[in-house]
Amino acid sequence: MTTLARVPCTIVTGFLGSGKTTLIRHVLANANGRRLAVIVNEFGDVGIDGEILKGCGDAACPEENIVELANGCICCTVADEFVPALDLILARRPAVEHIVIETSGLALPKPLVQAFHWPAIKSRVTVDGVVAVVDGRALADGQVSADLAALSRQRAADMALDHDDPIEEVFEDQIACADLVVLNKRDLLDTAGMERALATVTGALPRAVRIVTVADGKVDPAALLGLGVGTEDDIENRMTRHDAEAEHDHNDFESFVVRLAEIGDPASIAKRIAAVAETHNVLRMKGFAAVAGKPMRLLIQAVGPRVSHYYDRAWGASEPRQGSLVVIGLKGLDRDAVAKSLSG
């Protein structure tokens, strides 16, 4: 009886706005014929990241090979969501050769890696490696994610918060589990900024791990896929803050969706998004909008007040021309005020 080889899985983790989706799009576009599948763990009520990836349109990873888990942090819903998603992907024909798993920015990778020991999984898949994507510009500015200046000021004023800040803990846990660290946005850094960013990453690494610096998430897929680590068999060497905890939660974050009517022009919505981020300390916004008179859908991504947008594809004939934005921030966001401001 022939024993089938286990399918390698690359776990891509990283904080909000670090560039995980951009990196995965680049991998899909440069797969060189390798049959890929993606499991994307969106934190929010609609699968914006999954929609962005589906817009890539690469034959190596057709739309049916992208599975979205939209019901919460993947490390908290492994049994309910992740295992069925794997079953679905592994049943695809022709067979998938490599699976890329994009976690939400809030996920702790270690519980997910540990799940690869489960009987329902271990004989079929293995963790090729854990890749942590970090925002080089934010790290150069002394933050783990862009536009957390207010939180950073609080932390600087009260050093007692140093080990209690859940945002910092998530970042450190992601770094602690990494087999490769991708320091993104190097094009936004000068030499001194790059040195600061690298020092922050190396200071958080508990062991020797390769760090690559890139712009726009453009990592050579050959350097990203095929690490061959088998991380689940080395999990005991990935010491994190949460090792002694039976479970964890992410109650300091919340997300919600704002529906958008057709807009007049991209500049107006970008201006509103930037203003909302500044006023309400929103960490991340991402989604789509319909622009009057334009047949293409406008993709929008914002990290704090920094907003980018471009037309990604034509609206489908049966699609309603209605936009939506996932808003992610710290607990206590004034949802009504944010929605009213974004709706104009």
For this entry, give a set of tags.
344 residues; alpha/beta; Hypothetical Protein Yjia, Chain: A,domain 2; 7-stranded parallel beta sheet; globular
Question: Could you walk me through the main structural features you see in this protein, from its secondary elements to its overall organization?
Answer:
The protein has two domains: 7-237, P-loop containing nucleotide triphosphate hydrolases (Rossmann fold, 3-Layer(aba) Sandwich), CATH 3.40.50.300; 253-343, CobW-like, C-terminal domain (Hypothetical Protein Yjia, Chain: A,domain 2). It is built from twelve helices and twelve strands. It has helices at 20-29, 48-54, 78-90, 109-114, 119-122, 136-140, 149-157, 166-176, 191-204, 221-224, 266-280, 335-343, and strands at residues 7-14, 36-41, 66-69, 98-102, 125-135, 180-184, 210-213, 253-260, 282-290, 296-303, 306-314, 323-330.
Short summary of the structure?
31% of the residues lie in helices and 25% in strands. With 344 residues, the chain is of the alpha/beta class.
Number of domains: 2
Characterize the biggest β-sheet.
7 strands, parallel
Low-confidence stretches: 149-165, 245-251
Q: On the 0-100 scale, what is the average pLDDT?
A: 78
CATH 2nd-level architecture of the largest domain: 3-Layer(aba) Sandwich
Instruction: Give, in spatial order, the strands making up the sheet with the most strands.
Output: 3-2-4-1-5-6-7
* Broad shape: globular
The helix content is 25-40%
Determine the strand fraction and express it as a percent band: 15-25%
**What's the gyration radius in Å?**
20 Å
Count of strand segments: 12
Q: Could you tell me how far the N terminus lies from the C terminus, measured between alpha carbons in angstroms?
A: 64 Å
- SSE class: alpha/beta
Q: Look up the CATH topology of the largest domain.
A: Rossmann fold
Total count of helical runs of at least 4 residues: 12
Order of helices and strands: EHEHEHEHHEHHHEHEHEHEEEEH
